[in-house]
């Protein structure tokens, strides 16, 4: 790890100002992704701006048709939340499948969404539910937020403050864990709303994406059998030592069916 | 007499008190006055010519004390890292043994090969300076697989090692095997890969070196399984430091599994450097650094053929293997796929003729050496897999074919056609016990239940034997060992009757401080608490070959037992004087020396006291003091073995294999501490299951990059991968070790991979699957099912 300055602002504007005024500065939330990259000397920001003392970024609120999760809310809190378990059980289940207990206690939803790891779980939940990313300056729809490998619509200095999730009729998440890392080798989030079904897939390519043919089929008939024959194209899918592209594509169908099963149970 | 805890009891482990309360003393816990930090700069290329290193920017960087490279090593005329075994080919020609410089000279041969050592005031400064080194590499194509390495036109690692072949080794009677194959009713054939593994001990390697000008002595603290051997190899063969001027300490060590039983270049470099900079230096490897520098294990490609008569009797076994050595010869490297492999190909069977050819091959990968089991898991895997293949091809039940070929209990001692003679064993007894424990008779019911859920269930057997307790020195010497393989122990009885044992083995998780204390407590009748075991320090312990090859109890424990007997013998002499009785009439039992047939007796403490306060003592014929030493050189290997039965469930939709039941019935000879034996079996089995289902070190052909270079990509077995295991012993006693012990450190790892893969193949056999390479990952299983064009399971 290389030396860096450390700031712990109390207000969002102050944090935003530090970020824009110090070149090569970085936000740190739970540090579960950032700290290992610093230790391996893969990143060497001159300053870290710690979000942990900012007011109002932690906690889960019930807004009726939506629930809002503060950016600094750790995965373990989401997994254990009675509110989330009642209103969007699929999202609580997703949070409970992230990493291990230590990671779930430190890692935050804001950090995970901002990082947009191609194998992370939350992006599937956020895109699958059509959530809104609330930042220090604006609101961004999930469909416009995830731009590809570790890339998002966030501008320099922009801080995620919360994620707002619409409450679906039903939702489910199925994850096939990568054997070693236990990130998503394939993760599929399925959500059924009054006006249709959304299906979001993580782990198989450079970023999370939706599967319109599955969405159409499930909107007609919300049952695993409706999508059993729908295969996704292997073009652009990741092939690595854990899974070849065609195997990943196959698993998308299997996990989508299991996600529907989970949503129905 | 106190709290005697003897052989067969399961006290809690003495050492766990300090481990579980955070009071262990590991190398990285140690701080020396004025200590500096060292960082190794490693090759990022698999194969490259080293054209030059510009140190100037690094030397100018803040806090930097020195930057050392291969040129400095050459200038100081230091030796190459030695190989402890010299094997020969069929014609008696010695293996090719190219130099292994401690810092690369002229060429780098694997990603992780050491190029420079940077010493600075702090680790951060050393790391920063390391990034400033300008190293001019001319990158060459790498070759990482054994099949590719022996092909004509392959990149050549060494100018004088044609086709990268270090040695073309063989064992057995080739002509007899060919003759048997000619009259065989059936020949089973199998091609397989034994996957490459990374040991991953919990504690990464680390070292501290210090030079004391006042006494002209060096001290090296290192994460080693064999400090005396490091002292010998490094002092005598690499750095030219006389043995009495070099102290090697291996304090608490957090796991080894073989990874820490080699003499590493890091140890030599840091010791040499400590004198150059006249300051102590500490180096602690990161986990990632360990991946590209800890010696790897296994990595074989094998073709095997088994000849059988019409009744399924094995007539002959022929095995051709290419074994990966990596970029250089590590300490035991060439011994593992040869001497620890070929002689085990007889297994528990009466196969009369066996021939084995092993081509030992250099590649641009981390040097390969012993990893828990070392050679014997490879042999067991080939044999136990092909037995299943033969059974299925001939339509004979897998248990039945094993029974027809097993060495009966009465036939021991049994001479195999591949050098070794088994002293004792009862493979049939282990098999029978395991069949019951695994509830094999109701397997059909469980299989139908799985089928109802759309899953395929399979059962796999492995009836195996291994050779451990390394090793009879004379025998090992004939096979190419360049050192002895005995062990030593000193039993020091203090004037107040407590005991300190100095032993040459090394405890790094095995529970020796408990097991060895039980032996002493049992034999001397002293309190378990009153026995301390000292190991891991060449200044405190007389000598030793260390811990590996399941040798600690078998060889070290035997030395301890002998030394303890000597204490008793001397105690009897003292007692005979004090009790005024003939020595022959003195009995020693339960901590008391007594005159047979009388109630006259002296306690062990009284005898110890008399030995150190010799007022009334036969000084004319007996020295004072009560301290005895013994060296023990075994007369044969020991041959633990047993039967493992694995039960798996395969999800055909995802290809996931779940281990649902595991049963092991093992013959480990006398059991000193059943709890510790069970723990060793559990750990060993888990590592074997890891090899079978999860672990795989993968290199990129061409670039030589390690693709599975961290725990994010190298899958270790975890608690939730495993069922509750059923582990039991069915012991016959070793006929030649003092206590009848056989060793249990590696049996789990040796027996289990074949059991698991046999179960996976069984689960898929209805689809025509006859073999699955390790690890049986979901992707690999799914691919097999695709190729078997499975009518996809219940949607
Ligand atoms: C062993 C291990 C296993 C894991 N397994 C999984 C898994 O199975 N599934 C999974 O999804 N994840 C997994 N993770 C990642 C984990 O979920 C992380 O917590 C998460 O990716 C990042 O969250 P964090 O709060 O730790 O962010 P940090 O590491 O602090 O930050 C990550 C990045 O996001 C930026 N950032 C953080 N907060 C904000 C914000 N509010 N606004 C804008 N930018 C911000 C930071 O600047 C940084 O670039 C694992 C991590 C580890 C160490």
TrEMBL record, chain A:
Stretches of the chain forming a coiled coil according to its record: none
Residue span, FAD-binding PCMH-type domain: 1-170
Lineage: Bacteria, Pseudomonadati, Pseudomonadota, Alphaproteobacteria, Hyphomicrobiales
GO molecular function, one term: FAD binding
InterPro entries membership: CO_DH_flav_C (IPR005107), CO_DH_flav_C_dom_sf (IPR036683), Diverse_Substr_Oxidored (IPR051312), FAD-bd_PCMH (IPR016166), FAD-bd_PCMH-like_sf (IPR036318), FAD-bd_PCMH_sub1 (IPR016167), FAD-bd_PCMH_sub2 (IPR016169), Mopterin_DH_FAD-bd (IPR002346)
UniProt-recorded name of the protein: Xanthine dehydrogenase family protein subunit M
Pfam families: FAD_binding_5 (PF00941)
Superkingdom to which the source organism belongs: Bacteria
PANTHER family tied to this protein: XANTHINE DEHYDROGENASE SUBUNIT C-RELATED (PTHR42659)
SUPFAM superfamilies: CO dehydrogenase flavoprotein C-terminal domain-like (SSF55447), FAD-binding/transporter-associated domain-like (SSF56176)
Protein keywords: FAD, Flavoprotein, Oxidoreductase
Automatic annotation (TrEMBL), chain B:
Superkingdom field: Bacteria
SMART domains xref list: Ald_Xan_dh_C (SM01008)
Aldehyde oxidase/xanthine dehydrogenase a/b hammerhead domain residues: 21-141
Oxidoreductase found in the keyword field: yes
Any one GO molecular function term: oxidoreductase activity
Keywords, sorted A to Z: Molybdenum, Oxidoreductase
Oxidoreductase is among the record's keywords: yes
Gene3D superfamilies in the record: Aldehyde oxidase/xanthine dehydrogenase, a/b hammerhead (3.90.1170.50), Aldehyde oxidase/xanthine dehydrogenase, molybdopterin binding domain (3.30.365.10)
Protein name: Xanthine dehydrogenase family protein molybdopterin-binding subunit
Species this chain originates from: Bradyrhizobium niftali
């Amino acid at each position: 790890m290389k030396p860096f300055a450390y700031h712990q602002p109390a207000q969002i504007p102050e944090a935003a100002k530090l970020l824009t005024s110090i070149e090569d500065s970085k936000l740190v939330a739970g540090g579960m992704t950032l700290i290992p990259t610093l230790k391996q000397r893969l990143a060497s920001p001159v300053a870290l701006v710690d979000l942990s003392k900012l007011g109002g970024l932690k906690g889960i609120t019930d807004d009726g048709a939506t629930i809002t999760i503060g950016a600094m809310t750790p995965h373990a809190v989401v997994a254990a939340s009675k509110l989330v378990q009642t209103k969007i059980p699929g999202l609580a289940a997703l949070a409970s499948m992230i990493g291990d207990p230590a990671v779930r206690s430190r890692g935050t939803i804001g950090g995970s969404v901002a990082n947009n790891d191609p194998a992370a779980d939350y992006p599937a939940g956020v895109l699958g539910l059509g959530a809104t990313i609330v930042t220090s300056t604006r609101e961004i729809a999930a469909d416009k937020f995830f731009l590809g490998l570790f890339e998002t619509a966030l501008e320099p200095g922009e801080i995620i403050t919360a994620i707002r999730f619409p409450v679906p009729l039903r939702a489910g998440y199925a994850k096939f864990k990568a054997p070693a890392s236990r990130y998503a080798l394939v993760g599929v989030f399925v959500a059924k709303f009054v006006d249709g079904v959304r299906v979001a897939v993580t782990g198989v390519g450079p970023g999370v994406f939706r599967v319109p043919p599955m969405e159409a089929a499930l909107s007609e008939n919300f049952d695993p059998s409706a999508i059993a024959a729908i295969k996704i194209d292997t073009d652009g899918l990741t092939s690595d030592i854990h899974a070849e592209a065609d195997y990943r594509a196959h698993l998308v169908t299997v996990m989508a069916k299991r996600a529907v099963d989970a949503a129905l149970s | 007499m106190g709290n005697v805890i003897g052989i067969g009891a399961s006290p809690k482990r003495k050492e766990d008190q300090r481990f579980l309360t955070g009071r262990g003393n590991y190398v990285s816990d140690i701080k020396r006055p004025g200590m500096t930090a060292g960082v190794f700069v490693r090759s990022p290329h698999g194969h490259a010519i080293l054209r030059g290193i510009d140190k100037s920017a690094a030397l100018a960087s803040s806090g930097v004390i020195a930057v050392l490279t291969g040129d400095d090593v050459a200038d100081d005329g230091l030796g190459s890292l030695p190989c402890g075994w010299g094997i020969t080919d069929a014609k008696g020609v010695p293996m090719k043994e190219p130099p292994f410089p401690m810092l690369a000279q002229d060429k780098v041969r694997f990603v992780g090969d050491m190029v420079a050592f940077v010493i600075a005031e702090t680790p951060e400064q050393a790391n920063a300076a390391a990034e400033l080194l300008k190293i001019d590499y001319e990158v060459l194509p790498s070759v990482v697989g054994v099949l590719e390495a022996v092909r004509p036109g392959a990149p050549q690692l060494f100018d004088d090692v044609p086709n990268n072949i270090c040695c073309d080794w063989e064992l057995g009677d080739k002509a007899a095997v060919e003759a048997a194959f000619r009259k065989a009713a059936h020949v089973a054939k199998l091609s397989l890969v034994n996957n490459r593994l990374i040991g991953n001990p919990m504690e990464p390697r680390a070292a501290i070196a210090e030079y004391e000008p006042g006494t002209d002595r060096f001290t090296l603290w290192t994460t080693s399984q064999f400090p005396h051997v490091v002292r010998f190899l490094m002092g005598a063969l690499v750095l030219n430091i006389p043995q009495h001027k070099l102290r090697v300490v291996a304090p608490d060590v957090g796991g080894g599994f073989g990874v820490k039983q080699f003499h590493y270049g890091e140890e030599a470099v840091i010791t040499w450097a400590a004198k150059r900079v006249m300051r102590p230096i500490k180096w602690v490897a990161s986990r990632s650094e360990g991946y590209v520098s800890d010696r790897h294990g296994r990595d074989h490609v094998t073709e095997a053929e088994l000849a059988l008569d019409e009744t399924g009797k094995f007539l002959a076994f022929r095995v051709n293997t290419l074994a990966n050595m990596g970029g250089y010869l590590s300490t035991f490297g060439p011994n593992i796929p040869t001497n620890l492999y070929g002689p085990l190909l007889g297994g528990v069977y009466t196969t009369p003729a066996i021939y084995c050819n092993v081509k030992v091959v250099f590649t641009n990968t981390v040097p390969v050496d012993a990893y828990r089991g070392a050679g014997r898991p490879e042999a067991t895997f080939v044999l136990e897999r092909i037995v299943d293949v033969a059974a299925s091809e001939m339509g004979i039940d897998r248990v039945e074919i094993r029974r027809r070929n097993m060495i009966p209990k009465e036939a021991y001692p049994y001479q195999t056609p591949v050098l070794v003679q088994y002293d004792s064993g009862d493979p049939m007894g282990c098999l029978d016990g395991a069949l019951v424990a695994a509830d094999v008779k109701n397997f059909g019911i469980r299989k139908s239940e799985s089928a109802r859920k759309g899953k395929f269930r399979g059962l796999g057997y492995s009836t195996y034997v291994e050779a451990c307790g390394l090793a009879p020195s004379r025998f090992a010497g004939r096979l190419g060992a360049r050192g002895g393989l005995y062990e030593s122990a000193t039993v020091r009885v203090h004037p107040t009757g407590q005991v300190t044992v100095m032993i040459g083995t090394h405890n790094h998780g095995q529970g020796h401080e408990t097991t060895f204390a039980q032996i002493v407590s049992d034999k001397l009748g002293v309190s378990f608490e009153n026995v301390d075991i000292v190991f891991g320090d060449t200044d405190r312990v007389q000598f030793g070959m260390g811990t590996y090859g399941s040798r600690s109890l078998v060889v070290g424990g035997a030395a301890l037992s002998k030394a303890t007997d000597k204490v008793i013998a001397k105690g009897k002499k003292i007692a005979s004087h004090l009790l005024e009785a003939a020595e022959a009439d003195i009995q020693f039992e339960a901590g008391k020396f007594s005159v047979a047939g009388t109630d006259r007796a002296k306690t062990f403490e009284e005898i110890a006291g008399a030995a150190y306060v010799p007022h009334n003592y036969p000084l004319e014929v007996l020295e004072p003091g009560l301290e005895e030493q013994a060296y023990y050189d075994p007369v044969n290997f020991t041959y633990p073995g047993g039967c493992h039965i694995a039960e798996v469930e395969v999800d055909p939709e995802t290809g996931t294999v779940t281990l649902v039941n595991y049963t092991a019935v093992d013959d480990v000879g006398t059991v000193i501490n059943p709890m510790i034996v069970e723990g060793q079996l559990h750990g060993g089995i888990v590592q074997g299951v890891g090899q079978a289902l999860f672990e795989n070190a993968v290199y990129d052909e061409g670039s030589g990059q390690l693709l599975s270079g961290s725990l994010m990509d190298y899958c270790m077995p975890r608690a939730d991968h495993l069922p509750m295991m059923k582990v039991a012993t069915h012991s016959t006693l070793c006929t030649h070790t003092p206590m009848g012990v056989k060793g249990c450190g590696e049996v789990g790892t040796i027996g289990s991979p074949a059991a698991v893969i046999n179960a996976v193949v069984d689960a898929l056999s209805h689809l025509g699957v006859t073999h699955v390479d390790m690890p049986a990952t979901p992707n690999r299983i799914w691919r097999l099912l695709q190729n078997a064009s499975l009518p996809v399971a219940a949607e």
